[in-house]
UniProtKB/TrEMBL annotation:
Protein name: nicotinamidase
UniProt-recorded Gene Ontology molecular function terms: metal ion binding; nicotinamidase activity
Keyword annotations: Hydrolase, Metal-binding, Pyridine nucleotide biosynthesis, Signal
Pathway assigned in UniProt: Cofactor biosynthesis; nicotinate biosynthesis; nicotinate from nicotinamide: step 1/1
Keyword Metal-binding attached: yes
Species this protein is from: Adineta steineri
Enzyme Commission code: 3.5.1.19
Record carries keyword Metal-binding: yes
Isochorismatase-like domain segment(s): 138-265
């Protein structure tokens, strides 16, 4: 009787253990399927393709690199027309007339200049303001992209899709006391623009960044995109910049931070390849035969499911 009683309890415990193992395995499989079968959603982000940076008060052609900002327009238009993006996002520099970045406003902000000697600063110098609000360091640019002026408009040759379910327009740099190079955040990383929320509301997973200027607003946007969890690409031939040395330094920084630098002719192939891998992942995980956790591995194929 003692042996039979012990054996009975052993069987009960064994059944409970098997049930727990199966439940845990089922939970793991469900998690794997949910994680791996997430649909890729691709966004094209177009940064500040505005008159002010093309032939206006802060035209890139007047900068050290002498680059022509208008050259990005046909490249971006081809991407819009030919590549199967799910979401399109346009950003615009959109400054009030009293913006902190304007050299012309240095005199009116002289009481906030660190050290007090505001007269020593020239256009394109970096100055530290102690207020109002938070201390911030700012490059002194000529007044540009002032709200509701013709210069602040997107260039007429750029394809401007109507705002809608898959098209987003973001105005940045609206706070007079802080600049915003990135289309995601102000320069002090305190206040977000609506861009991240708009992309996440549309389930965007991958972003391709283009526009002006690569060494400032494009680069800052791409770095923030990585930090917000997007797989991020910069399309180099769809960007132009201010300073050649700064452009090279920014490209190196972007690559170190995990941004992929690509050319426009590669983009459609990249998306098609990612979609093919995703189809295999979906096939595998729907049958719960294979756990693929790295979408970038090159050997994903249907044979992995067998």
């Amino acid at each position: 009787m003692k042996y039979n009683k012990l054996n009975g309890w052993t069987i009960v415990l064994l059944i409970i253990s098997i049930g727990a193992i199966r439940a845990h395995k089922s939970e793991d499989e469900t998690t794997t399927v949910e994680r791996s079968s997430k649909k890729n959603v691709y966004a094209l982000i177009m940064i500040d393709v505005q008159y002010c940076f093309i032939n206006g008060s802060l035209a890139l052609s007047n900068g050290p690199a002498g680059q022509d900002g208008a050259e990005v327009i046909p490249v971006i238009n081809e991407l819009i027309k030919k590549v199967p993006f799910d979401v399109f996002a346009y950003s615009l520099d959109w400054h009030p007339a009293n913006h902190i970045s304007f050299f012309e406003n240095l005199e009116s902000r002289k009481d906030y200049v660190l050290g007090g000697d505001h007269e020593k600063y020239q256009m394109f110098d970096a100055v530290t303001y102690t207020g109002p609000g938070l201390e911030t360091t700012q490059i002194l640019w000529p007044a540009h992209c002032i709200q509701d002026t013709d210069e602040a408009k997107l260039h007429e040759d750029l394809i401007r899709l109507p705002a809608g379910d898959n098209v987003v327009y973001i105005n940045k740099g609206r706070n007079p006391n802080i600049d915003s190079y990135s289309a995601f955040l102000d320069n002090d990383k305190i206040e977000k623009t609506p861009l991240d929320n708009e992309l996440k509301a549309r389930n965007v997973t991958h972003v391709f960044v283009t526009g002006l200027a690569l060494d400032y607003c494009v680069g800052s946007t791409a770095i923030d995109a990585i930090n917000f969890g997007y797989k991020t690409y910069v399309i180099e031939d769809a960007c132009r910049g201010v300073d050649g040395t700064a452009i090279e330094a920014k490209l190196n920084q972007l690559e170190q931070d995990g941004v992929e630098i690509v050319n426009s002719h590669q983009v459609e192939q990249i998306i098609n390849s990612l979609n093919s891998k995703q189809n295999v992942i979906d096939t595998c995980t729907s049958n719960k035969r294979y756990d693929i956790t790295d979408e970038n591995q090159d050997d994903i194929n249907i044979n992995n499911c067998q």
